[in-house]
Sequence to fold (967 residues):
Amino acid sequence: MAIVELKNVAKRYDSMPGKKGAEHANAVEDFNLTTKDGEFVVLVGPSGCGKSTTMRMIAGLEHNTAGEIRINGQDVSSVEPRDRDIAMVFQSYALYPHMSVYHNMAFALELKKTPKEEVKQRVQEAARILDIEHLLDRKPRALSGGQRQRVALGRALVRQPQVFLMDEPLSNLDARLRVGMRAEITRLHRRLGVTTFYVTHDQTEAMTMGQRIVVMRDGRIQQVDTPYNLYERPVNRFVAGFIGTPSMNFLQADHHGDGLGGQGFSCPLGPRLQAALGEGGQRSSCWLGIRPEHLHQVEESSGRGRLEGVIEVIEPLGPVTMVQVRVGDTLVTAQLAAHLDVEIGDTLGLAFDPDQVHLFDIESDQALGLEPDSAASSTQATA
Amino acid sequence: MTASNADRTPGRKAGSGGTALTLLAWLIGIAMFFPIFWVVLTALKTEQTAFSMTPTFIFSPTLESFRSALAQGSGYWHYALNSVITAFGSTLVGLALAIPAAYAMAFFPSRRTDFTLVWMVSTKFIPAVGVLIPVFLVYRSLGLIDTRLGLTMLFTAMNLPIMVWMVYSYFRDIPIDIIEAASIDGAGTAQTMFRVILPLALPGLASTGLLALILAWNESFWSLTMTDYHAATLAVYTASFKSGEGLFWARLSAASVLTIAPIVVLGWFAQRQMVRGLTFGAVK
Amino acid sequence: MSASPTDASPGKRAPTKRLMAPSVLFLLVWMIVPLAMTLYYSFQDYNLMMPDMRGFAGGLSYELLFTDPVFWDALLNTLLLVATCLLVTVVAGLALALLFNRTFVGRGIARTLAISPFFVMPVVTGLIWKYMLLDPVYGLFSWVMRSIGLEPVQWLSSYPLLSVVMMISWEWTPFALLILLTGLQSLPEDQLEAVRLDGANRWQEFRHIVLPHLGQVLYVVIMLESIFFLTSFAEIYATTSGGPGTATTNLPYYIYLSAFFQYDIGLSSAAAIGAVVLANIFAIFLIRFVAGNLNAGSQR
Ligand SMILES: Nc1ncnc2c1ncn2[C@@H]1O[C@H](COP(=O)(O)OP(=O)(O)O)[C@@H](O)[C@H]1O
Ligand SMILES: [Mg+2]
Fold:
């Protein structure tokens, strides 16, 4: 049962390698977030964007150099990690190599002088949930990667802490195990209802697991929102490109008369796009964002956007085929039907629904035409 | 180049041309060891057989020399006890000093850490003669000459730089994540130290101790200059054979064997660790 | 420095200073303070036979030292000893390391036999060699020479320095062997395979792959051995006592003699400073190496 609040939190390392001289060389800057009780929050962003740093500040492994962190209303800045009642799952698992699985899991409880019977019962309970009962006597050395991962989870689980912190816990597993564990962690969270921070650089993991997702970049929050909103209403070009695979295509478009267009593409302007374009003064150009899954191979239709280019890459994936088309200077990715009757070098025409495109300011990269309510609740920073 | 292809395969298996090299390696191994073997052999002879112009290899062995070397009046036990006390004492004191220092430097590095570490190592390169005179004079005025305490401290000073370095590098091998996991699990500094770090570094600490023990046991400069009888070690004991008594070869050999055997055997087991300790991590 | 947990515990900083203080103090008291005192004494006129006649002597001790032919002999002997022992141990050690880097029957045992001399107490080494090996009448070497019809050699009186070199090399070749062998074994097999595929012969393989790989290791062996050879004492003490004449008197033995037999604190301190300077010429290189290693290691 815990609500975690971060207010204007910032972190500056004494020695920031490679960033010397840069003015705002903070690893994390102006971080604001308040969790709901029992919420599953995912921090996502490219490597080095400050996810681990944020997590480590919540754990107390690093000082925040500005702002404050509260757990259930209590300012924890002078509370030692061991007194924060937080459990953490490390990317490296950080199991104690000299202890058996049982003792790895029991260690925290033993330190708290929990009665032996209770320790045993709680370890066994956690081991049962994670299906590692048969491993309790083994040393970590004798476990596979997936098993170690479970032990690391188990070690956090037996604590019954106020908050779980998980820093890329699945990134050392192979792809198949990862998908399995993903579901398992979600299931565990639903069952235990403990407030959880989960760090990943993998947007698929973020989208499938998070109730709320914090997208970060260069130490700053870009957007905090539900998976659905992040996909539908990205606040800027970075979030739009980061969320969704393959990434959204961006075309630099000029505004003329009743349409947007450029070399090899055009898009009619409905009222929504008209309004968006007019937001904050008239613009003569903008970024036009189209997701690959929104491009279709349609011969001729009115009221639709169109683009055309020469095929450079064809990647059949089974259920769908990815095609990359050269439109002007830009390579546009389209997710098309499995059976395609085209070849590299062919010219391909594709259509899209203007209602599904996103517009971004050419300079600030900010999204244009977001409904005010969603924009107000979830937008935070500028690039 | 005439090397056949056969013995150039990876792993360097001894091929046809390798038999000669194998033989050579064995011969050299035996030759290097021979003086030690010869001392052992001589120790098992009677004084008459030991001291002859034509060496005997076949003889009926006797423990007579060992018996007389270990006899009450020989003083062997006195010196051996001093060796044990000073070697073990300096090893323990050294570990007690080195572990906290290495712990601080490995897990709580500050800007000065590197400097301190290099400075500590560099004191190893002050030759003993460079401090001999003041140490002697100060010891004399403090009554530390010919005391086990005084000698133990000198051994400690001699080994401390290497010990700090070794313990430091073993600590550095412990992933920082594990220490952090312990602190999140609720362990304080002492608990982290005794329940996580020390158990993990135990093999490393053992080899550090072993190396210190070997170096202290074999030390002769300080023993010869700072002790007479009361705190004199086996180095002094064997050195006393260097004149007149050297004519009793069997006894000299028995005494030598008793002096070097424990450490040579320890050395066999600590070969690899010696490398790491003595090369400051250049070779692992 | 990477993830330094300096700020790992928000409440209180780790008591770094208090944990390091004992070691630092210990080394200060037992090494640095005495070193400073040695320097001080070297400018004093101080003889233990006449303890009342102390006073500032300026550079007198150094003047005496530099005009003492024995000192120059000792310095020359020291350098000769270091150079010869280095040459022998490094060349022999490298050859042996290559020999023992092959897999063969009983390699572990043969290697253990070969490195055993390193664990022998130097005093005992001296005695074994002086009596049982080098004795002109009863020694093993003499017996061997007589057996093949040669005149036995008076090792310790005819070739004193060479005798000492033999003892020290017997002790230290194993050290070079052990370390160079470990170095060889850390050479990645694929590098050798690659160069063999490129058509290199054995010599080229050694010259272009093995030797460069051993570079750092050789460096360490040479530096460490120099420092130990510079301070050789027990072997000389137990055998020649610096003689005959001054033939095997090296710097440490010279200092020992002038302090404990001439009671001349000023002179022996000046000589000790000389020894420290000499050691430092070698040590600087090694310390630079250690410091470099530290930085490489800090990317943990
Ligand atoms: N201990 C540290 N000292 C200096 N800089 C650090 C340290 N840890 C992380 N950083 C820097 O802070 C930034 C954020 O790092 P991190 O939080 O680990 O990113 P992420 O977990 O998102 O990959 C990076 O630029 C990184 O180089
Ligand atoms: Mg990270």
